[in-house]
Design goal:
Layout lengths: L2 H9 L16 H29 L7 H29 L7 H27 L6 H25 L6 H8 L65
Length: 236
């Protein structure tokens, strides 16, 4: 049943700050801003990656109640991470680039809005009835549909930060690099595909206690944006 969420995450970029490109002439102010932000962002990017992995590695033979608990926790963790990322953008100050104040304000607003959206998904998952397999599967499909939209929000949240000189400076910072999930994937034969896999799209959702997961949805599935800062450039 969880494969739909996994597929959403797998099919897109997991929100991670895996930025590309390097400029050899970064201004000190821009580089300092990038370091300040990325140092604070690193643990949040890791938290997102771990949450995505929890969703995508939920065993195919897991019970609905187990899937519900795992997804609920993952969505809350991502929401908390996005709020912390918004604070990191705020505390780093106005980026020393053109339209820096607008870029900062937009990122803060969008990250906080994404956090609220993920908490909405958590409430939706918490409201599902794990004792009714068919209704649970149908409800999880609705959650996956909502996740697709939120992942787009996640991808856009820090997109402006990743452009131009600022993005190039961030790409040099270890804290803004794509993390490796610290949550090991399930080794069960029925476990879902690893992140990046789209095989979870196949098969029927009905009659199964759980569906193989694809990629978390950050992204707990599209970018990552680590931060779209995502596997995107910053996937989720």
């Amino acid at each position: 049943m969880n494969k739909k969420l996994a597929a959403v995450l797998s099919g897109g970029a997991v929100l991670v700050l895996a930025l590309s490109g390097c400029s050899e002439d970064e201004g000190d102010k821009v580089g300092d801003w990038a370091k300040t932000f990325c140092d604070q962002a690193k643990p949040q990017i890791q938290k997102r990656a771990d949450a995505h992995q929890i969703i995508i590695s939920t065993a195919a033979d897991s019970k609905p109640a187990e899937i519900q608990a795992a997804d609920s926790k993952a969505f809350q963790d991502i929401a908390n991470a996005d709020r912390a990322l918004a604070k990191a953008v705020e505390s780093a100050g106005v980026p020393p680039v053109e339209n820096g104040q607008k870029i900062q304000q937009d990122a803060i607003r969008e990250l906080n809005a994404t956090a609220v959206a993920y908490e909405g998904l958590k409430k939706q998952v918490d409201a599902l009835d794990p004792t009714n397999q068919q209704k649970f599967a149908d409800g999880l499909q609705s959650v996956a549909d909502g996740l697709t939209k939120i992942e787009k929000m996640d991808q856009d949240a820090l997109s402006k930060l990743e452009e131009g000189e600022l993005g190039q400076a961030m790409a040099k910072q270890p804290g803004c690099q794509k993390p490796t999930a610290s949550v090991p994937p399930k080794t069960s034969g029925s476990a879902s595909p690893q992140p990046g896999s789209t095989s979870s799209d196949s098969g029927s959702d009905k009659g199964s206690d759980a569906e193989p997961t694809g990629n978390a949805s950050t992204k707990p599935s599209t970018k990552a944006s680590g931060t779209k800062t995502s596997g995107t450039k910053t996937e989720e």
